[in-house]
From TrEMBL:
<dbReference type="InterPro" id="IPR006680">
    <property type="entry name" value="Amidohydro-rel"/>
</dbReference>
<feature type="domain" description="Amidohydrolase-related">
    <location>
        <begin position="422"/>
        <end position="483"/>
    </location>
</feature>
<dbReference type="GO" id="GO:0004038">
    <property type="term" value="F:allantoinase activity"/>
</dbReference>
<protein>
    <submittedName>
        <fullName>Carbohydrate esterase family 9 protein</fullName>
    </submittedName>
</protein>
<dbReference type="Pfam" id="PF01979">
    <property type="entry name" value="Amidohydro_1"/>
</dbReference>
<dbReference type="InterPro" id="IPR011059">
    <property type="entry name" value="Metal-dep_hydrolase_composite"/>
</dbReference>
<dbReference type="InterPro" id="IPR032466">
    <property type="entry name" value="Metal_Hydrolase"/>
</dbReference>
<dbReference type="GO" id="GO:0006145">
    <property type="term" value="P:purine nucleobase catabolic process"/>
</dbReference>
<dbReference type="InterPro" id="IPR050138">
    <property type="entry name" value="DHOase/Allantoinase_Hydrolase"/>
</dbReference>
<dbReference type="GO" id="GO:0005737">
    <property type="term" value="C:cytoplasm"/>
</dbReference>
């Protein structure tokens, strides 16, 4: 039973000032004391009125005070901020379950608040006092709300002196507060704002069962520059333990975590973590019961020997959880952990606001509904999964399935696990995989606001809400949608925002996403591990002819470039006829029909692409795809090589170049998903330290190494990593590389031969390096070697976050780069990112391409390799030249192959149903001439 404190009438939120209340309290105190003194002759404590108020307040539910809704000025208003009138916007308000859209609407902002929405009578305004924005019909949404972020507590760039996410001083520490570690100088504030993120819940990390209290902040800079000034409606306890008992309490937030992380941090098990929860909650329950017993007597006027109100600064926040006054955010993935937590809520009777990450929640909706109080919301990634065991059954269809079960879905970044600048991309992907559009937009605005108890002021565009709005260059659920302005508390965050030039009119409409209902069903049927192999493989022996009809566009590789097939395409009449994996005819149906014999005619398979595309198979590079199944599990992956700079190389392999081909692991779920997403081949290098070894190119669909076409090239390039903060200094790493390239280092056999090959340009040398300083050193080293050897090296820089600073030199020296589509300053050597719109006109990719640098795309995370198709399309939209599909495809095909010398290794094509290569299309088939097959998905 939940013991509610004995209370009289609940104290209503007061509109009068504190002094007036105090006067009232003193009056009631004197009345009570007079009465008590005369009847019982008991000494009534001087602070009795406060104590009584405190006791009565224990049963108050947090929320805005009554007068909140008639506020005319925000408590976050910065005096001097000009009012803003946004005219003619298409407003997604967040109202009507996310379905309300106002067209040609005006939004009037003043005093940090949205003053009116819809038709604004401008005749009564002195327009010269306003910042007037003509939206020209563009989309306007509420500011994005990230319910799970470590921005400011985990630093970007990462520096050990500003690493405040996790305490390692105890499994259950409800007394810790993320606010106390909130660094105000993180690079990510501005970057995340540039993605439209205006508010974030800053959670402690997940190393503890109870990691501490979280705080909601707005990301804009403040005139005061303090962390305090960033807080949004903080609980009154923020300034200390003495709380005005007469004020209606505000919601608090708290982090819990279960499963692998607390186990790992404390060398324990799930049993230990669950016990830590129970012990802490038992302590809180005991304290709560003491308080309630105390208050029962105080409210009865039974003061004899009552003493002080029982409290404990370490447990008061957890007591508040038991009183239902804290939004509990519970990092919890697997069914075992979800079950444990649901039991815990039943044992101690408290609600959980949200399960976070929660990769298995979609498998157990009924379990979630058994949680005490109400079913938790689910805060999740869209497609980021399989990085550890508890994420292994994660599904891209989870959001849709949870919503089908009427559970609240929130998309979150876990910044900087994902860069919160692109939280919108998570909502877009959730929508792509089946979450209804209204819920997808709500999942990063209204839903998290409501779940955090802040739905009265953020997450909607409506009169009286905080003036946090984002103006977009396309429909917000369209791939690559980018803010053109972000307004927080009425303040414009970008003085001179740059816009992406390539957005076209078609992008102003909601993308029509493909149907994934069959896949979603299979995800459930197979407990999160549905078969990923093609539905059907048509091999040469079948003698089946496949005819792709309704082709909207077709691109192929030719002479090291991607070209569009000259065509009279885009009609139901355009076809490609494929026999044994070879495309024998592309053109109008009547012409190509000649290629189908009468004998074959009976068994022709037609695949209608519905204005879709046929593109060259994409190549993945940069992640451990091919060397790992579960990155967090040592026993599922190839592992690390020895680092010669630490002197740890065993004699047996000293002088040997480690080959990735020897460690290849096929049929990982990430590889099969990549294949189904059009990434038909991958390059992977061993990794370990300075001298990584030799990379391999392989087919993502192969079942094992001995299968035909599994290994495309067993030795591709020689890989070295140079990084700041490594075990040896950068100058030591460069000295070692120089020695190796000059053949002067005292090394044996293969290593000597390998570097001699690299110095002579017989094999590409791929150096992972991020900082412009390191890259500049490598440019000079290349010249030095080439002059000495009379050779031309094939140097490629991978990572290359700061390469745009040297674009001209790299172009001149013919040094290629492999870069991420969305760079992020996670470390010091990556801090000079070129962010792109709205912060800068150019991106690193556009800058490098302008200088004729060969640019390939890379991705770091094996579970996100699947997004390479989106990444190429996204890069094209950011370009400040004309949209050029062919060039954008080169980034993930011919350019990568050129850099690695793999020009003819893979002639696969893939076909997608639906137009555009973005969220309107779905990969339907891979056409492989080398293997003589067509795989149908
Ligand atoms: C609003 O913007 C749209 C799109 O640019 C334009 O067609 C329309 O004329 C504008 N309406 C007003 C009232 O300015
Ligand atoms: C905390 O103290 C600061 C400085 O006195 C004040 O501005 C702020 O309103 C206080 N916050 C709360 C929640 O009481
Ligand atoms: C094609 O041939 C393969 C192997 O020869 C066989 O397993 C498959 O069922 C055949 N498919 C069709 C559609 O005939
Ligand atoms: C193949 O079959 C279609 C009908 O399915 C027919 O229209 C066409 O003429 C046939 N072509 C040949 C070459 O037999
Ligand atoms: C890049 O190449 C093009 C075509 O060869 C050439 O016109 C242009 O001047 C080059 N740009 C730079 C910066 O070298």
């Amino acid at each position: 039973m939940d013991k509610a404190p004995a209370s009289g009438r609940p104290l209503q939120p007061q509109r009068r000032g504190f002094l007036a209340l105090l006067a009232l309290a003193v009056l009631s105190y004197s009345l009570t004391s007079t009465f008590l003194l005369s009847s019982n002759s008991v000494q009534v404590p001087l602070n009795a009125a406060t104590t009584i108020a405190q006791c009565r307040a224990l049963s108050l539910t947090p929320g805005p005070p009554k007068d909140f809704y008639s506020r005319t000025t925000s408590d976050r208003f910065v005096p001097g901020t000009k009012p803003t009138l946004i005219r003619n916007a298409t407003v997604w308000t967040g109202g009507d379950d996310g379905k309300e859209i106002l067209t040609a609407a005006d939004v009037l902002i003043d005093k940090g608040i949205i003053q009116s929405v819809g038709k604004v009578d401008i005749s009564r305004l002195k327009l010269e006092d306003y910042v007037v924005v003509d939206a020209k019909g563009a989309w306007l949404t509420p500011g994005i709300v990230d319910m799970h972020s470590h921005l400011g507590v985990g630093s970007s760039p990462h520096l050990s002196g500003a690493s405040d996410t996790n305490s390692h001083k105890g499994l259950a520490q409800p007394w810790l507060r993320s606010l106390d570690g909130l660094n105000t100088h993180d690079e990510a504030y501005r970057l995340s704002l540039s993605g439209g993120v205006t508010t974030a819940n800053i959670l402690p990390g997940s190393a503890n069962a109870i990691g501490g209290q979280a705080f909601v902040i707005k990301l804009r800079p403040t005139p005061e520059r303090s962390s305090n000034a960033m807080l949004l409606e903080p609980p009154f306890t923020v300034n200390g333990s003495e709380v005005d008992p007469f004020a209606k309490p505000r919601w608090r937030q708290m982090k819990h975590a279960c499963g692998e992380n607390p186990s790992r941090a404390y060398s324990g098990t799930r049993m230990d973590t669950t016990w830590a929860f129970r012990q802490a909650y038992d302590t809180a329950r005991t304290l709560r019961d003491k308080q309630d017993a105390y208050c029962a007597r105080a409210l009865d006027g039974d003061w004899a020997g009552l003493g002080e109100f029982p409290n404990d600064l370490q447990y008061e926040a957890l007591v508040d959880v038991l009183r239902g006054r804290v939004k509990v955010h519970n990092h919890c993935y697997e069914t075992v952990d979800l079950s444990n937590q649901v039991r815990l809520t039943q044992e101690f009777k408290f609600p959980i606001a949200a399960f976070h990450h929660a990769h298995e929640t979609y498998l157990v909706p009924d379990l979630l509904k058994q949680a005490y109080g109400h079913p938790p919301a689910i805060a999740m990634f869209a497609a980021h999964a399989r990085y550890k065991r508890e994420a292994y059954r994660g599904s891209e269809f989870a959001a849709k399935i949870l919503a089908d079960n009427r559970l609240d879905v929130v998309m979150k970044s876990d910044h900087s696990v994902l860069d919160s600048r692109y939280l919108l991309f998570e909502a877009q992907q959730a929508h792509y995989y089946g979450l209804p559009w209204n819920l997808a937009l709500a999942s990063i605005t209204t839903t998290p606001s409501r779940v955090m108890g802040l739905g009265h002021r953020i997450g909607q565009i409506a009169k009286g809400f905080d003036a946090d709005v984002v103006l977009w260059d396309s429909h917000p659920l369209h791939l690559a949608a980018t803010p053109t302005q972000v307004i927080v508390d009425g303040i414009h965050q970008f003085d001179d925002p740059h816009t992406s030039p390539n957005k076209n009119l078609g992008m102003q409409k909601l993308p029509e996403t493909p149907d994934f209902s069959e896949e979603a069903k299979l995800a459930l049927e197979y407990e999160g591990l549905p078969p990923l192999e093609p539905k059907e493989t048509l091999v040469a022996t079948n003698k089946t002819v496949v005819v792709f009809t309704g082709i909207g566009e077709m691109y192929v590789k030719r002479d090291g470039h991607v070209v569009e097939l000259a065509s009279r395409f885009d009609g139901p009449d355009s076809v490609a006829v494929v026999k044994e994996g070879r495309t024998v005819c592309v053109g109008l149906h009547d012409e190509c029909a000649l290629w189908i014999t009468e004998e074959e005619n009976g068994s022709v398979r037609y695949v209608d692409l519905q204005h879709g595309s046929i593109w060259p198979g994409l190549v993945s590079y940069g992640s451990a795809l091919g060397l790992t199944h579960i990155p967090g599990e040592a026993s599922t992956k190839d592992g690390s090589t020895f680092d010669p700079l630490t002197g740890s190389v065993p004699n047996l392999v000293d002088g040997t170049l480690i080959r990735a081909v020897d460690g290849l692991l096929f049929s990982s779920r990430d590889a099969l998903i990549a294949y189904r997403s059009g990434i038909t081949s991958a390059i992977v290098a061993p990794s370990g330290g300075f001298l990584d070894g030799l990379s391999v190119a392989f087919s993502t669909s192969a079942p094992h190494k001995l299968a035909f076409g599994a290994v495309l090239q067993d030795i591709v390039a020689l890989h070295v990593t140079i990084s700041l903060g490594g075990k040896a200094s950068v100058s030591t790493q460069i000295a070692a590389l120089r020695g190796l390239l000059f053949g002067e280092a005292d090394v044996e056999r293969e290593v000597k031969k390998g570097f001699e090959g690299a110095a002579r340009g017989k094999i590409p040398l791929v150096v992972a390096a991020e900082s412009a300083d390191t890259i500049a050193t490598l440019v000079l080293l290349k010249k030095e070697i080439e002059t000495a050897k009379g050779s031309t090296m094939r140097l490629v820089i991978s990572g290359a976050t700061e390469a745009h600073l040297l674009a001209e030199e790299l172009g001149k020296e013919n040094i290629g780069v492999l870069v991420r589509q969305r760079p992020y300053p996670s470390s010091w050597e990556k801090r000079r990112v070129l962010p792109g719109p709205p912060i800068s006109a150019k991106t690193a990719i556009s800058t490098l391409l302008e200088h004729n640098v060969t640019v390939g795309l890379m991705s770091d995370d094996p579970s996100l390799v699947r997004n390479l198709r989106f990444d190429t399309t996204w890069a094209a939209f950011q370009w400040d030249g004309a949209i050029d599909r062919a060039k954008s495809l080169e980034l993930a095909t011919t350019n990568v192959e050129k850099l690695f010398g793999l020009e003819h290794s893979n002639e696969d094509l893939f076909a997608s149903v639906g137009p555009g290569g973005g969220f309107q299309s779905k990969v339907a088939a891979v056409i492989s001439p080398s293997r003589g097959v067509v795989d149908l998905f």
